[in-house]
C-alpha cells in the first residue's frame, strides 16, 4: 500500500479521536482536507488544530509579507504526523503548543538570515523533529520532538483501511468531495455544488 500524506493526516485525526476528542474537519480555499481541524475537548470548548505531515520528519512553515508566520499563531494546537524512523508503516504523531514551534522556527530563521541576510519571506523555513549534525562539525542541532506535549504511534495504514472498509455516509461523502474540489480549485467550499447521476 502506497502511503500518502493524506494517510498521515488521517492518522493524526484518528489519534485525537482515540483520546476521546470530537474532531471536525475545516474546509476552505487553499485548505488541504484534514490539514485544519476543530476539536472539542472534555471542557466543552472548541480548539483550532493544524495538522502538518512530512515524509522526511521536518516541519516547514512560510511567512506572510509582514514577516509573521502563517497559520501557526492562529491555532491552539499543532499536530505533526510523520513516518516512524524504524518503520515507515507506523506514524509518529506529536502534539505541540504553537508557540513552541514558533520559537523553534524563529531560531531556524535567525540561522538562515545569518547566511542570507536578505532572505525572502517566501522561502519556507524547516525545523527537524530529530537531532541532526550542523554541517560537517560534531555540533548537534537539537530536534523539536522533545518539546512536544505528548506523542503516540499508530499504524498509518489502519486509518485508511478502516475508512475504506466502512460504508461512508452519503452526506460525509458529498462534503468530502466538495472540500477536496474546493482545495484543488482554490475557492471557498461554499461556492462548490456537486451532483451525481446513475445511468441505467
> What distance separates the N and C termini?
34 Å
What is the share of helical residues?
A: 25-40%
Which fold name fills CATH's third level, the topology?
Answer: Trna Endonuclease, Chain: A, domain 1
Name the CATH class: Alpha Beta
Order of helices and strands: HEEEEEEHEEEEHH
Mean pLDDT comes to: 84
Q: Care to count the β-strands? A: 10
Describe this structure in words.
This protein has 200 residues and is an alpha+beta fold. It has a single domain, classed as 3-Layer(aba) Sandwich (Trna Endonuclease, Chain: A, domain 1). Helix content is 29%, strand content 24%. It is built from 4 helices and 10 strands, in the order αββββββαββββαα. The strands form 3 sheets. Strands 1-2-3-5-6-10 form a 6-stranded mixed beta sheet. A two-stranded antiparallel sheet has the order 4-7. It has a two-stranded antiparallel ribbon with strand order 8-9. β2 (36-40) and β3 (46-53) form a beta hairpin. The protein is globular, with a radius of gyration of 19 Å. The two termini are 34 Å apart. The model is unreliable at 159-167 (pLDDT under 50).
List the defining traits of the structure above.
alpha+beta; Trna Endonuclease, Chain: A, domain 1; two-stranded antiparallel sheet; globular
